[in-house]
What does this fold into?
Amino acid sequence: MQGEYVLVTGGCGFVGRTIVRALTEAGARVRVADLTPPSAHPAVDSVVGDLHDPRIQAAAVTPEVTGIIHLAARTSVLESVADPAGVHAANVTITAGLLDLARRAGVSRFLLASTNAVVGDVGETRIHEDIPLRPLTPYGATKAACEMLLAGYAGSYSMTTCAVRLTNIYGPGMAHKDSFVPRLMRAARDGEGVSVYGDGSQRRDLVHVEDVARGFLTAWASRFTGSVIVGSGRSVTVNELVEAARRATGRLIPVDHVPAKQGEMPAVVVDISRALSLGYRPRLGLEEGLAGVWKEFAGSAAEAGTAGGEQ
It folds into this structure.
């Protein structure tokens, strides 16, 4: 990455912080565009503001930038159902604006954080990049639209554009989130249980955030244009995830089975062959990765206990 100057939108988020660190460690200069300054990486340049504002976009995308990693988005499926127009504006309109600024500034490389939700529910079928796009939610539709924009800019302007489709991401730094892994960690820390939808046989591919960063750097180095799935390549059931969390934390974590949510996908099983062919190699197994997340949650509990004793 020596000589590269990368704009990372959403670089202060859970995934963004890890990617920014990986870029800087690889020798790249980095500019972060986010609503907040990048306090975790004070050496990087920053553009602070809302990317809905054309002035913020113009300040972020300048000719010295050699490429863009676009992470900033609204990612809640439920939020997209409640506010489809707002999520479209945040995901599609901003992406279109950044792409066109990149074209005009001569920034020829653009990587997008996408999702396997662009293909909808394919049942037990292994998901690969050539499955037709059939999103079932406004969120999935916005990411499918962004992928089409990338393809159009690659075809018309010879830009290198890559949609990196991500599976379920976990890792340190997600204490504020409400996805299943942090719920498991909070339950272990607080001596409580978790609710599992249905019988827990749903299958998911969980990928560590550090492997996600490796995936983006691989896509960048390969100059690949198109879509590529980045995951662990191994799907586990929710029940297996609970057992892995019990082993990683050493806690019981009781489970309460509740009725399944309508429309929940029974399986997310992905084929990462294309990413592997580009040089991507996931390194962190599930239990090892969960142990790292647990260390953070257990540490926060210990700090709270120390603080309580000092008062």
